[in-house]
Amino acid sequence: MIEAKDIKRTFLMGKVEVQALKGVSLNIEKGEFIAIVGPSGSGKTTMLNQLGILDTPTSGEIIIDSTNISELTDREKIRFRLNNLGYVFQDYALIPTLTGLENVYLPLMMQGHPQKELEEKATNILEAVSLADRMHHLPSEMSGGQQQRVSIARALVHEPKILFADEPCANLDSTASRQVLELFSNFNKKNQQTIVMVTHEEWHLDYVDRVITLKDGLLAD
Ligand code: ATP
Where do the TM regions start and end (predicted)? Predict the structure, then answer.
């Protein structure tokens, strides 16, 4: 489903080159729940951003379901992301002036679905993350765990092929973290949802099918 071939990513810091990824190749199959782990600065977020088409590699190729991403125009990449991928970030990235429901139906709105369908689908997914009673509240009226569950609902409402999550539990206590991981695990098992998650917590690995370890910009043995 995802094939990464010899991915390199170099950043320029003034005149200094930082080689965040030095040639990473990997395959992820449909339905896998993957954790990317490694020490701070090993390239986890940079790799997730390449796989999730949020950044462009300096060299190498990402192929998702037979689409070679390097052959897409910027406009086609935006469309590809909108139709195929979902994202969860550690700071939730909700729009503060919109209610939970409105935040969740944004991806569907951008795809041009009618209002009735937006509300129906967003309500269903908010029920699935046990937030039906909070859907008309603003993010500022919710706990961190509730906000993260809204962001998971938003990431999944358009039924993306792949869900990318960058340290989704970084700002949550252990109870809220467990709820998030159990949600991921349920979507993964019930819907064959492919999930790629960056984490640095050992106990999170109990929930995943496979661990990919990075070290200094390369796959660790
Ligand atoms: P952490 O666990 O601390 O979040 P990480 O494993 O996710 O770290 P990355 O954020 O991918 O690591 O960073 C890998 C390397 O690339 C680091 O040396 C970092 O400083 C560098 N880097 C990442 N993004 C940029 C950028 N936009 N500009 C310059 N250097 C960057």
Answer: none
